[in-house]
Amino acid sequence: MALILRFPLVASTLLAGLCVGVLLGLGQMPAAQATATIYALAVATYRAVSMIRDLFRGRWGIDLLAVTVIVSTLVVGEYIAALIIVLMLTGGDALEEFAHGRATHELKALLERAPRIAHRETPGNPVEEVPVRSIRSGDTLLVKPSEIVPVDGLLLSPAGTFDESSLTGESLPVEHGKGDALMSGSVNGEEAVRMVASATAADSQYGRIVALVQEAAASRAPTVRLADRYAVPFTLFAFLLAGIAWYVSQDPERFAQVLVVATPCPLLIAAPVAFLAGTSRAARSGIIIKNAGTLEQLARVRTAVFDKTGTLTHGRPALQAIRVAPTAAEGTSPGRILQLAASAEQSSSHVLAASVIDAARSCGLLLLPVSSANEHATQGVTAVCGDQTVVVGKAGFVGSATTGFEQADVASGQLGIYVGVDKRFAGTLIMSDPLRENAVATLAQLRRLGVRETLLLTGDTLSTASHIAAEAGITRVLADCLPADKVAAVAELNHRPVMMVGDGVNDAPVLAASDVGVAMGAKGATAASESADVVIMLDDLSKVADAVDIGRRTIHIARTSIWTGILLSAGLMAAAAFGFVPAVAGALLQELVDLAAILNALRALGRSRTPGAYSPEPVLLPLPSPKIRP
């Protein structure tokens, strides 16, 4: 029932065909012909009205030839052929609509994430819940642990830790002190903080992101259907040949015979079938392509733009190396430092603590019981692990509590977590958000697929961004970008179409504004996925190259199917022009042409023979042996 309501013309055409079949079975040929004629003329009239509207809008398509073919077949009495043509016409539209179906609620997830309630402090009533839209500049707010900052403002508490990755792309937590600016949309850490609002919700960072997505999505031009590009020359050729055949033979039936085999079903069916097959092939690979126009754009991508955090990198800090200090106790191993640090971090609520604990567990290290612990907000933690006192945290914190401290020399994109044991500096854990293992192979594959220019757009610092870009083989870098900066940068790019790959709320506007937006949707923000044209459901960057490859293969097959149909139809038209193909035989032969075009289009379901980007074996860090035990 849902399909009938969604595609009523297809359902009514099948019903009309059934009625005609029943009437013919009962021997009521005049009634069958009248039924088919009335219905086909009704569809032709409907298409003619649509055709006239498109002509006034400056759009030329295949409707003129389709309407003419329906009428001409009815004039010569081929009402069965007319019904078949109508079925192909309506079925092609249904397939195209299905292949082009895109999400209708792009902003739903973004709007759902937007904070609706704020906690405002007022005289006589210390904290009250109020709608975010009622917040005004100067209001004092309480932001609870793990709560989204509702509006832009200034921090009143002595210190606070915030996750700004969805806004700036910075994967590491950001620490702010009293008086620092806070951005709406960032997520507070484990401690409640007080702030003073400096803007309303509409004028805050998150509100501007929503507005940017709306504006970019509304300004995107529609993609012209692939079949329409062949429609005008094919239509002119069909009418010209039919007219010449009529003029030379002085037989008006010759005109209809030529147009019967010129039925544009390959144009109507081949491209939608190829697009549907291509999107199905992509879906099996974990790639959701929302509309057929995106396949066309993917096939022609010339510039690939990448976000850093969560796209080129994994978006979570990872242990890269362990450096043992010269002042460490004799026999102290990298494994022991990691084990003690992870054991102490069990008592910490800091984001990096989870990364240290995960690193220890991945190496098979057992965490020691903690008898006492004391966390120093934003600085580090002191804990008694077994019979040893351990301090873990920032350089200043650990340096003041240990002897022999030396600050680590870290490269761009790295962060040092310092460890002291029994008041002696033991060593440093080097953390970083590493490049994805298959990033280099993916960039290389994109270049083989025709991408001429690559660009890294990120909110991170230039040094960190340049380091990642150099590793990945990206040619240009734009750092310290806010969402509006990213939209402006994409708009200025010359080699188009532009494909933007990102995740997080900060990427939603630029994904909507680019020619092709690709969201790493497996772990990224829902808003980015809803604003994108392509969503990668797996946490695999190589799928970006696979999506481009599928787009190129699909469009190639669609064009091949269209040309197969056109050339076969042209041959039949030439034969019909000389009177060798009667109308009935022409209709049957035309169905064989349609079948050939459709079968060729279904090849888009198969895999490409072009080698795609691959995912190599993960690179193992030189960490301690998993057999280490206390």
Model description:
This protein is α+β, with helices and mostly antiparallel strands and 630 residues long. The protein has 23 helices and 22 strands. The strands form four sheets. The chain has a seven-stranded mixed beta sheet, with helices on both faces. A six-stranded antiparallel beta sheet has the order 2-1-3-9-4-7, with no helix packed on it. A six-stranded antiparallel beta sheet has the order 12-17-16-15-14-13, with helices on both faces. Strand 16 and strand 17 (424-432) form a beta hairpin. The longest helix has 36 residues, at 542-577. The protein is elongated, with a radius of gyration of 33 Å. The model is unreliable at 99-109, 219-224 and 611-630 (pLDDT under 50).
Helical residue percent? 40-55%
Briefly note the structural class of the backbone.
Answer: alpha+beta
Annotation, overall tally of beta strands? 22
The quaternary state of the protein chains shown equals single chain
Strand order of the largest sheet: 10-22-21-20-11-18-19
Q: Any idea what the shape is?
A: elongated
How many H/I helical runs?
Answer: 23
Model regions low in confidence, pLDDT < 50 over at least 5 residues: 99-109, 219-224, 611-630
User: Kindly, what is the distance between the CA atoms of the first and last residues, rounded to a whole number of angstroms?
Assistant: 66 Å
What fraction of the residues are assigned to beta strands by DSSP? 15-25%
Rg on CA atoms, Å? 33 Å
Major sheet details:
7 strands, mixed
pLDDT averaged over residues:
80
